[in-house]
Amino acid sequence: MCLAIPGKIVELMEGDRSLASVDVLGVRRKVDLGLLADERPVTGDWVLIHVGFAMSKISEADALTTLRMLEELGEADAALEEAQGYGLGEAGETGSRAGP
Amino acid sequence: MRFVDEFREPELIHRTAEEIRRLADPGRHYRLMEICGGHTHSIYRFGLQDILPRNIDLIHGPGCPVCVLPMGRIDDGLSIAEQPDVIFAAFGDMMRVPGTHGSPLEYKARGMDVRIIYSPSDALKLARNNPDKHVLFFAIGFETTAPSTALTLMRAKAEGLRNFSVFCNHVTIIPAIRAILDSPDMRIDAFIGPGHVSTVIGCRPYGWIASQEGKPIVVTGFEPLDILQSIVMLLRQLNQRHCAVENQYKRAVPWEGNSAALRAMAEAFELRPFFEWRGLGFISQSALQIKEGYAEWDAERRFAVPGIRVTDPKASQCGEVLKGMLKPAQCRLFGKECTPERPIGALMVSSEGSCAAYYNYEHRKAQTLTKLASAPVGA
């Protein structure tokens, strides 16, 4: 719960403007953008995700640094498990799974 | 300095550590509290205390929401979940946390419908998928998590989803800091401010810590270098007798916080008159409850909640550890009756609690060293 995981916005959902398809550690997940209503991100932006909600926009360099730190902290597996768990772990509902 | 060479930027780490040694006045003892459990985790994982001069002590604060939740609240939540046709949904962190009659995971083993979720919106999805059941979301966390729960409540209301409710245990960080500062035996010189909580609340709410209490505070990121840089900033302030709120974690924390997240919280939540914290006792206006307008989705209004109170065993000294009076290993139960496998005190409950973090890294390191020392030469 206390992890913040960087993800890159792949596609904004049509119909529901508060949802985006986001690449999180190689997994495509639906992420809620409702808490960034005042600085709406666009495709290609990086966001910090906390319990399935994008909490803040960050730069690509900071996102890559944070990903490396999750690795160094030994938390990359926990982060991947969390990302895979979003949407009740029903993979495929928001697109294909890329590499790990 | 066992981990230094593993760092991404060892040069920069060395230089920052050097700067800390230069700034630390040998005639002074510095007690710095990191408030957030994420920082505690990083500090132990990277062995940062080993890099610091001996007269800088890092004290691990109350910022692990799982740790400070009283056992009675877990009992209350599980008692709702024991009613027929209820699905109990919670984050994985909660699953092993013991209630009086077992953890959620143990209840699951006894046949209760317990689901691990990774996002509050998945609790909504569970409710949609199971229209003949009631989904109870056991909500927990500081201001980092509370906005997501708020938005989830707003969505449930907009959708008119009637088989969903939230058992709200969200807490707020500022009153906890105040409780620590108000305690007569408090011995803290400055604060390493929380990172993720501050992405939501910004830096302004910490102003009184500097202006009224005379303690510097630096909002800090989670990398080893972030934490060391923050210590440099705090030492500079302390040496110059200057007290201000500074932001080391600018890359993620805007000074004003996240306005949309604050709006969501204000829409769905209000302050509780008081709430109990394990290790700190009752703190007024330190937690959130669901507003009247969302009463239908408030588990505490929809169900009869027993309001169980379980006092911590007298022998545990969590409060003294939280306030920096004792190191984890100085507690009389540490590593004996109280271990991460069988936690008695609050701080041993989650891996981000200071006792569990200390146990996992320091205690095991010491045991390995003892084993190595007693091994026959050449073995």
Could you explain how this protein is built, in words?
The complex is a heterodimer of chains A (100) and B (379). Chain A has 100 residues and is an alpha+beta fold. Chain A has one domain: SH3 type barrels, CATH 2.30.30. Helices cover 23% and strands 31% of the residues of chain A. Chain A has helices spanning 60-72, 76-85, and strands at residues 5-12, 19-24, 27-32, 46-50, 53-58. In chain A, strands 3-2-1-4-5 form a five-stranded antiparallel β-sheet. Chain A is globular and about 40 Å long. Chain B has 379 residues and is an alpha/beta fold. Chain B contains 16 helices and 13 strands. Chain B has a five-stranded parallel β-sheet with strand order 2-1-7-8-9. The longest helix of chain B is centred in the last third of the chain and has 21 residues, at 354-374. Chain B is globular, with a radius of gyration of 22 Å. Chain A binds chain B through residues 1-2, 4, 32, 34-38, 48, 50-53, 55-56, 58-59, 62, 65, 68-69, 72-74, 82-83, 85-88, and chain B through 6-8, 37-38, 41-42, 45-46, 64-66, 91-93, 116-122, 125-126, 140-141, 144-145, 147-148, 151, 196, 199-200, 222-223, 251-254, 258-261, 264, 352.
Can you give keywords for this protein?
heterodimer; A: 100 residues; alpha+beta; SH3 type barrels; 2 helices; globular; disordered C terminus; B: 379 residues; alpha/beta; Rossmann fold; 5-stranded parallel β-sheet; 4-stranded parallel β-sheet; 16 helices; disordered N terminus
Please give the structural blueprint.
The complex is a heterodimer of chains A (100) and B (379).
Chain A: E1 5-12, E2 19-24, E3 27-32, E4 46-50, E5 53-58, H1 60-72, H2 76-85
Chain B: H1 10-23, E1 30-36, H2 37-45, H3 48-51, E2 56-63, H4 65-68, H5 71-81, E3 86-91, H6 104-109, E4 114-117, H7 120-129, E5 134-141, H8 146-159, E6 164-170, H9 173-182, E7 190-193, H10 196-201, H11 207-211, E8 217-219, H12 224-239, E9 245-247, H13 259-268, E10 269-271, E11 274-277, E12 281-284, E13 288-290, H14 299-302, H15 318-322, H16 354-374
Parallel strand pairs in B: 1-2, 1-7, 3-4, 3-5, 5-6, 7-8, 8-9
Antiparallel strand pairs in B: 10-13, 11-12
Helix pairs in contact in B: 1-12, 2-16, 8-13
